[in-house]
Design goal:
This protein has seven helices and seven strands; from the N terminus they run βαβαβαβαβααβαβ. By secondary structure, it is an alpha/beta fold. The longest helix has about 35 residues, at about 100-135.
């Protein structure tokens, strides 16, 4: 059994990879998941070459069975779970009179439904860790879009607003168990997901994935007496042209 272990969905790149690397550097054994097998295995190999303990599990989180199996495989491999990072997400921009049902369903499935299922399956292990050392942690990647409600991203913003609400409820329900739940709501982060806007907002003026990884590390540094249900990470250069994102 590992001394500490973390499960990160959407861990093959961007924010998820940065968080995985940071937790690995802290001594956590890692399970990272992703949908694209080749990319995921390449990422895991890179982390392993940095002398980090890592297992890669290919999982399409739109499938409940896949999420259940992912958590079960993590338990089989590492025997415990101290930190769950629900990072997998997707954003599809559309006008409200042009929202396609398949895109609506996919965003809800990945951004919200998978997060709820992963949390449900992980809570027993997290409570065991919380009883041991008082620092079980759930991190849910939301978005400042869930607060700012930008145009053209109505469904994405709605799912992220739901993540913020779900995280607050989770924190209240888990109070006293040694497990905390925090939603992180960043503005534009320099990842593949924000390539659509990088012509207007240069990547160097965006939040970096490592900033979010350091935010997670900060949460782990807090004493068990401290709970932070929500962290908003804004860009210092955000303005009306980007609707605050």
């Amino acid at each position: 059994m590992a001394e500490r272990a973390a499960l990160i969905t959407g861990g093959s790149g961007g924010i998820g990879l940065a968080i995985a690397r940071r937790l690995g550097e802290r001594g956590y054994a890692l399970t990272i998941s992703g949908r694209q097998e080749e990319k995921l295995l390449s990422t895991a190999e890179g982390l392993a070459n940095e002398d980090l303990k890592v297992e890669a599990v290919v999982a399409d989180v739109t499938s409940e069975e896949a999420v259940v199996d992912l958590v079960a495989e993590h338990k089989r491999q590492w025997g415990r779970l101290d930190c769950l990072v629900n990072n997998a997400g997707i954003g599809i921009g559309q006008a409200i009179d042009g929202v396609q049902s398949k895109h609506f369903d996919r965003q809800v499935a990945i951004n919200l439904r998978a997060l709820v299922i992963a949390t449900r399956e992980s809570v027993p292990m997290l409570k065991e860790a919380g009883a041991e050392h008082g620092k079980g942690l759930i991190v849910n990647l939301a978005s400042i879009a869930g607060i700012q409600s930008p145009a053209w991203l109505s469904v994405y913003a709605a799912t992220k607003a739901a993540v913020l609400s779900y995280s607050r409820s989770s924190q209240k329900e888990l109070a006293g168990s040694g497990v905390c739940c925090t939603a992180i709501a960043p503005g534009f982060v320099a990842t593949e997901m924000t390539e659509f806007v990088q012509g207007e907002v240069p990547p160097e003026k965006m939040i970096q994935p490592e900033d979010i990884a350091e935010t997670v590390s900060f949460l782990l540094n807090l004493t068990p007496a401290c709970a932070i249900p929500e962290i908003v990470v804004s860009r210092s250069a955000a303005g009306p042209d980007s609707e605050g994102l």
